[in-house]
Design brief:
The structure holds two protein chains of two kinds. By secondary structure, chain A is an all-alpha fold. Among the domains of chain A are: about 60 residues; about 70 residues, no CATH class. Helices cover about 75% and strands about 0% of the residues of chain A. Chain A is built from 20 helices and no strands. By secondary structure, chain B is an alpha/beta fold. Chain B has one domain. Helix content of chain B is about 55%, strand content about 15%. In chain B, strands 3-4-5-2-1-6-11-8-12-7 form a ten-stranded mixed beta sheet, with helices on both faces. In chain B, strands 9-10 form a two-stranded antiparallel sheet. The radius of gyration of chain B is 23 Å and the shape is globular. The chains are: A mainly alpha, B alpha/beta. Chains A and B meet through helix 1, helix 3, helix 6, helix 10 and helix 18 of A and helix 1, helix 14 and helix 15 of B.
Chain lengths: ~350, ~475
């Protein structure tokens, strides 16, 4: 009995192995031949795209291109995505025309596909080639799976109008498990136009993580109009929010924030102190030099580290202070930190 | 008495057969899961522009930590390759672990290193640091020179103490990362920043490849058969095994040659354990244990396309040393964390991944060797049913070949790195040939490692490096 099972197994495995080998081999031959053909078609399309982009009337040339190449959507997508990488602004318009006239309707249809990967692939094309009229289709995807939702948000960010921005912030407020990293990149890509939305959203009751992200955005986008809103968070009970407020104040570089940052430098939490000292360094207000020097004598490594680099940011004045601290003998930890910062200035020009 | 022996003999035979069937069923299952995983991954990353990540304003910075012991041959190529990675914010921390060759001198000369008075927190234990160097021409590079810690773990801990960023990437000094490897491997940390604690990519062998200025510029198959067999082994292990296990959320190994981790979690569980000789698996298990103990959700991802190239041994002696260490490390780790085995508290890791490694990976070689001993004794006693034995042998060979072919198919579907049809033929031939001596040899080596473990042999053993320029031959 066992012998028969083993014999059958042998025959079965032999056939399976040979078939698999032939499949791999045949598939490779087929792919190589298809790749050769695709390369040729891609080359033709690439030449024609370059002609479109350099034509006197790019719109008309784009229409003509679309008519000629609409029958090869797979390679056309590749060409459009590749050229999207290289182009920005108005030079993208002919590509959008080609997209609209060739694969737009199919992509819109596939946005409703039951397969996640298909929806995702198509919504990603809209990140590059969407028009304001597509917003209605993309908004529907804001309740899809997280990965599709984020791609849809990215696409909406590309056609930012007042309505789409409202949708984005609405979703941010309601998102139960927001990917803060993804939101921060989307907000950053939207630029200063989101200032009123940030202000309105910050006025609402938000979880600290969401409020923290908006405070952080105010600094990254240099939205000085939100200075007072940010200062309000410097007194917040949540430590993370105070840290973010301190960091943002260091970016906004509003001279009046020295007092707020000086208060934060005396915060009970060493994390807040460390960030406040780093931000004071960015502000380069001479009044904060004694605070930074005091920070070098903190028992906390991070506080000393940030105070050291904060002083280094002052230039010569800070360097002189660091030299003085490095020479004193009372606090070896402060002296070592000052020496390290001075050494970094010498070796790498001050890059920590 | 003879009846008892016969029953015992029949029992062992059945055990070996059942074991063979179960083991291969699992490998087959992993291959099928990997196939699904690769196809899904390919579809999910269509039209993703990894370059976009490079331009994003907020990405998680990464410290690339490179422990180096006697790596004078390839260290400059490796560090150059790491410094040229495409990633917005990263630093490269090379830890010279008391090398007795010219590793440090070559680094100092190549990058104009200057001694730096660094003040750092010694959060993790490590041997004395003799000096920390920085380069005026490469501000991203930090070189730590320390007393030898008799293992990679100690060097990694020193690197972790010096590193500044929230994610760290462990890379072997004899490895080359592809230019966009960090951009690809960091994706899980951006998509699910709260839960992702680790991610790994594929390790491939640089033997037979052409390396130019720290990058693999031509992929080929080496002339050395031992290296060829290892290419297949790596394909099976990474594309078949690890991806399949990751699909079942039971990743237990993120290779020490290329893995990325959250630093806060690694520090919270005490960093690398110096006593461990396979510090990578040890760290991953402890991180998982910590997350389970704290009842925090987590995931460890395997990404099938960020590629790290590494040099494989081309002699049986060095290969045996390497595999013995791997196996001793596995035994050591599974014994150390035996409390997790079959423990529902540790989820899939405790109920599936660890038992799988314990029952199949750890004990596999002993059962295999038991089979050889049994067969030899039957030959000597004249009790062999030769037709059956021959057919069974071929079943084993063709099963092995079939699994190898599956991994070649996975390679074709994922990265399609071997450009010529001839490469497929050579890999297939290797898949058949490895069953004739190589597998049995490694089985014995791995089984012997238990004896080494019981004798308390716990050292790393040296790897002879040829350097990429010599290992690489123009394909």
């Amino acid at each position: 009995m066992l012998s028969i099972v083993v014999l059958y197994s042998f025959v079965y495995l032999l056939l399976l192995s040979v078939s698999l080998f032939l499949f791999i081999f045949g598939r490779r031959l087929l792919i190589e031949s298809r790749e050769r053909k695709d390369r040729r078609v891609y080359g033709d399309m690439e030449r024609d795209v370059l002609e479109v982009l350099t034509a006197r009337d790019p719109q008309a040339a784009a229409v003509d291109f679309a008519r000629r190449h609409a029958s090869r959507p797979r390679i056309l997508k590749e060409v459009l995505v590749a050229y999207r990488e290289a182009l920005t602004g108005r030079s993208l318009e002919p590509l959008k025309v080609i997209f609209e006239r060739t694969i737009r309707s199919r992509c819109l249809r596939e946005l409703r596909s039951p397969f996640l990967a298909t929806r995702l692939q198509n919504v990603r094309l809209f990140i590059d080639f969407s028009r304001p009229e597509e917003a209605v289709h993309l908004v529907k995807l804001l309740h899809d799976k997280p990965v599709v939702r984020l791609a849809a948000l990215n696409a909406l960010a590309g056609i930012a109008s007042r309505e789409t921005l409202a949708h984005i912030f609405d979703l941010f407020e309601k998102d139960p498990e927001p990917n803060l990293y993804a939101y921060s990149n989307i907000f950053f890509s939207l630029g200063p136009r989101i200032e009123p939305f940030i202000r309105t959203t910050l006025d609402k009751e938000l979880p600290p993580a969401k409020a923290g992200l908006l405070v952080e955005m105010a600094g990254r986008l240099l939205l000085r109009g939100l200075y007072l809103d940010v200062v309000a968070f410097a007194r917040h009970s949540d430590k993370e929010l105070r840290i973010r407020a301190a960091r943002t104040l260091g970016r906004l570089l509003v001279p009046e924030s020295v007092r707020t940052l000086a208060d934060l430098a005396a915060d009970p939490s060493w994390e807040v102190q460390a960030q406040a000292l780093r931000s004071l360094g960015h502000l380069q207000d001479w009044r904060s030099v004694p605070i930074l020097v005091k920070g070098l004598f903190s028992p906390q490594w991070h506080v000393r580290y940030n105070a050291g680099y904060g002083l280094a940011a002052f230039g010569l004045v800070g360097i002189l202070q660091l030299q003085e601290v490095s020479r004193q003998k009372e606090d070896r930890f402060a002296a070592d930190m000052a020496a390290m910062v001075l050494d970094t200035v010498v070796v790498t020009g001050g890059e920590p | 008495m003879s009846d008892v022996l016969r029953v015992l003999d029949r029992g062992i035979e059945t055990l070996i057969l059942v074991y063979f069937l179960l083991l291969n069923s699992f490998y087959f299952l992993f291959s099928i899961l990997s196939l699904a995983g690769i196809l899904r991954y390919r579809r999910l990353v269509t039209f993703v522009r990894f370059g976009e990540l490079f331009r994003m304003p907020i990405v998680k910075p990464i410290s690339v930590i490179v422990p180096a012991f006697n790596e004078e041959q390839g260290i400059i190529d490796s560090v150059r390759s790491l410094l040229s990675l495409r990633y917005p914010v990263f630093e490269v921390v090379v830890v010279n672990d008391g090398s007795t060759d010219q590793t440090l001198a070559r680094l100092i000369e190549a990058f104009d290193l200057k001694l730096w008075k660094a003040v750092y927190r010694k959060s993790l234990p490590s041997k004395t640091i003799r000096g920390i160097y920085r380069s005026p021409i490469q501000p991203k590079l930090i070189v730590v020179d320390k007393v030898n810690g008799r293992g990679k773990a100690d060097a990694m801990n020193a690197g972790l103490n010096i590193s500044r960023y929230p994610l760290f990437c462990a890379v072997d000094a004899d490895s080359i990362l592809e230019n966009d490897a960090l951009l690809k491997v960091v994706r899980p940390f951006l998509e699910d920043p709260e839960r992702t604690i680790g991610a790994g990519g594929i390790i491939r062998l640089s033997n037979g490849c052409h390396v130019h200025e720290g990058q693999v510029t031509g992929v080929g198959i080496p002339r050395n058969w031992i290296a060829r067999f290892q290419i297949l082994e790596y394909l099976r292990a990474f594309l078949g095994g690890r991806l399949g296990m990751a699909m079942m959320r039971s990743t237990l190994i993120v290779s020490g040659a290329f893995g990325i981790f959250r630093k806060d979690i690694a520090m919270a569980c005490g960093g690398y354990r110096a006593a461990s000789i396979t510090e990578d698996i040890d760290l991953v298990i402890r991180m998982q244990k910590l997350m389970h103990d704290q009842k925090r959700p987590y995931r460890i991802q395997f990404i099938p396309d960020p590629i790290c190239w590494t040099e494989a041994p081309e002699s049986l002696r060095v290969l045996a040393r390497q595999r013995s260490r791997w196996h001793r490390g596995l035994i050591q780790t599974l014994i150390k964390y035996r409390g997790m085995l079959f423990n529902p508290r540790y989820g899939v890791a405790g109920l599936f991944a660890m038992p799988f490694y314990a029952l199949f990976e750890m004990t596999g070689p002993f059962i295999e060797c038991l089979g050889y001993v049994l067969f030899t004794s039957h030959v000597l006693l004249g009790q062999v049913n030769y037709p059956f034995a021959v057919v069974f042998f071929f079943v084993a060979v063709f099963y092995g070949t079939f699994v190898s072919l599956l991994s070649i198919l996975l390679e074709e579907l994922s990265e399609h790195r071997y450009p010529r049809l001839r490469d497929i033929l050579i890999l297939t031939a290797s898949g058949v040939a490895e069953n004739l001596f190589y597998r049995q040899y490694l089985g014995v080596v791995r089984a012997w490692s238990l004896i080494d473990h019981l004798r308390g042999r716990n050292e790393w053993g040296s790897m002879e490096k040829r350097g990429f320029a010599k290992a690489g031959q123009k394909p």
